[in-house]
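Much of what follows relies on a compact textual record of a protein's fold. A record is reproduced here so that you can trace the correspondence yourselves:

. . .
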Amino acid sequence: MITQPQTIPAPDPYEERLRVQTARLLAYRDDGPLVTLLRDRVGPGLPPVPATLAALLAIIAMAVTGMLVDGPILLVPVLIMIVLVLPTAARDHLGKLDWLAPPLIRGAEFLAIILIGLAADAPKWLLYVLIYVIGYHTYDTVYRTRQSIWPAPWVFRAGLGWELRLLLIGAGAALGVLTWVLAALTVYLGVLFAVESVTSWVGLDKQTALAQAGDDLEASPEEAQEQATGEAERT
């Protein structure tokens, strides 16, 4: 009995585009293990842009009104971020303005780090270096995904995500040990992101070189001769 080969239907281009868009935005959010653990337990979640914008405005209002002083009050901006932004991870991020969610989250994270650090009298240069390290990780993630090179999921877990980074900073400020927390966090994240990024790009270059070598070996002698002649004429 002759069986006909089964054909696998090609994915719908529109659905594939939506899938890639969602995956990119979720990667840009830089959610950590706490958000991953609770994402499926918060119901339908909150709309990403309004909720994140509300958290950002609430933190700004605390700073403007002088509420951010040294002590346990410095945990409040972190809790605002957790309560309002964490539930947004359950959404599919396919709304017309949902692309604004990742930059708003990163802006709120950076603002919270700066305000908490200044209120706790942490070294300003240390705050700058930590923000630079997180910013580098964000840039690397964006650049990779635009080249269809996705960072490994463990990177986001090991990077703690915006939520655990802020929780550690808020707890450090409340306990009066923020400088030590910032120093440890900066060194840890700096080494993690730098080593992972370099090894990933080096590995990609090796794969590209091997693929190019394979293509050269598969070429016929006539094709190789034509390619060499063409390169010689161009030079």
Remarks:
- Confidence is low (pLDDT under 50) at residues 209-222.
- DSSP finds ten helices and no strands in the chain.
- The CA atoms of residues 45 and 87 lie 5 Å apart.
- The radius of gyration is 24 Å.
